[in-house]
Design goal:
By secondary structure, the protein is α/β, with parallel strands linked by helices. It has helices spanning 41-52, 73-87, 112-115, 119-128, 160-165, 203-210, 230-239, 250-279, 294-304, 323-333; strands at 3-9, 13-20, 23-31, 57-62, 93-96, 102-104, 133-138, 143-149, 152-153, 169-170, 185-188, 191-194, 287-290, 308-310. The chain folds into 2 domains: 3-117, Nucleotidyltransferase, domain 5 (2-Layer Sandwich); 132-311, 2-Layer Sandwich (Nucleotidyltransferase, domain 5). The strands form 3 sheets. It has a 6-stranded mixed β-sheet with strand order 3-2-1-4-5-6.
Length: 334
């Protein structure tokens, strides 16, 4: 019975899924802010490996090559690949190269453009085997919107630049997005107010105030280094409009958080409508929910008038939240 560990090396987190006999048995996520240094990756890999134990095969996909610690994507891909090779037996490691499939670790330099930020393609390729649908993966930082039809990934774009241009990549997520990127202004006390162009608060604060945040999914520090409490989140959100939390009621701050959550959902909704306008999906094709923002995907599905189904349909914790890691592991196992 072959054991495979699927890896998704992001710019903020490392996610891993252990697959035994083609079945998901465990999924984990650790914080790993690569923008603070590429040397952060090796300890995260070591921690996860120690918890998971040995495997017959390791398969990795990545988005961490975009971290600004790297001069360019090629450097990022090669650095991450080399770190993986040092942490594991290189002959037991394969990289996911999207449209080229699985390749040997030693071939990273030849296919870095296919490897870079291909984790969405892994999730979509696995989901496409289950039928038509619109895969929506809302993570900590970004949202992927991928049409699936006829057993194939029908994405228009492939690179991040191409996907941003066609609505298939929306740069907004459940925890790490800056509030100032969610909307240019907000209604408060009966008037429109512009926002401070500062990282005073994040999407995690918005969803924490609203009670829609899975606290286990928020693994980064807060904007001000203060606690991850509703009261502290209100204070951070208040700074976005030049106020202190004591200047208004809890109800007022809840309403303001609701506005930002609505603006975030509208960004994703706009992307979904753009993708659907060319996807030729039948009306009964579902929305497939993945990522830590799966509850937000369900709200999106309601707006689109489509049923919503889970990506993994599995009771293992984090299986839907860490879709790309699960996907590369299962694709390799199958």
């Amino acid at each position: 019975m072959q054991t495979v560990i699927g890896w998704d090396i992001g710019g903020a987190h490392v996610k891993a899924a252990r697959i035994e006999g083609g079945r998901i048995v465990e999924v984990k996520q650790l914080p790993c802010p690569l923008w603070l240094g590429a040397d952060r990756l090796a300890p995260a890999l070591a921690t996860l490996l120690a918890g998971f134990g040995p495997a017959d095969l390791h398969v990795a996909t990545m988005t961490g090559e975009l971290a600004d610690v790297f001069a360019n994507r090629r450097e990022g891909v090669l650095t991450i690949a080399a770190t993986i090779g040092q942490a594991m037996s290189p002959e037991k490691v394969q990289l996911y190269a999207g449209r080229r499939g699985l390749i040997a670790l030693s071939s990273a330099a030849d296919h870095f453009e296919d490897i870079a930020s291909a984790n969405w393609h892994a999730s979509a390729s696995l989901a496409a085997r289950q039928g038509d649908g619109l895969l929506v993966d809302i993570g900590s930082t970004t949202t992927d919107i991928i049409p699936l039809r006829g057993g194939e990934v029908r994405a228009q774009g492939y690179t991040d630049a191409e996907r941003l241009a066609c609505g298939e990549l929306v740069y907004t997520g459940m925890t790490r997005s800056f509030v100032m990127a969610l909307a240019p202004r907000a209604p408060f006390a009966g008037a429109w107010t512009t926002l401070a162009a500062e990282y005073f608060a994040s999407a995690a604060d918005v969803h924490r105030i609203l009670g829609t945040l899975d606290e286990h999914a928020d693994q980064m520090d807060t904007a001000d280094g203060r606690p991850k409490t509703v009261a502290a989140s209100r204070a951070r959100l208040a700074r976005m409009i030049g106020h202190d939390a004591a200047d208004a009621t809890d109800t007022d701050w809840h309403a303001l958080a609701g506005w930002f959550a609505e603006m975030q959902l509208r960004q994703i909704h706009d992307g979904a409508l753009l993708v659907l306008s060319r996807a030729f999906l039948a009306d009964d094709a579902p929305v497939i929910a993945a990522g830590i923002g799966a509850p937000l995907v369900r709200r999106l599905a309601e707006r689109l008038g489509r049923r919503c189904v889970p990506f993994a349909n599995n009771t293992v914790a984090w299986a839907d939240a860490c879709a790309p890691a699960v996907a590369v592991g299962l694709l390799a196992a199958q």
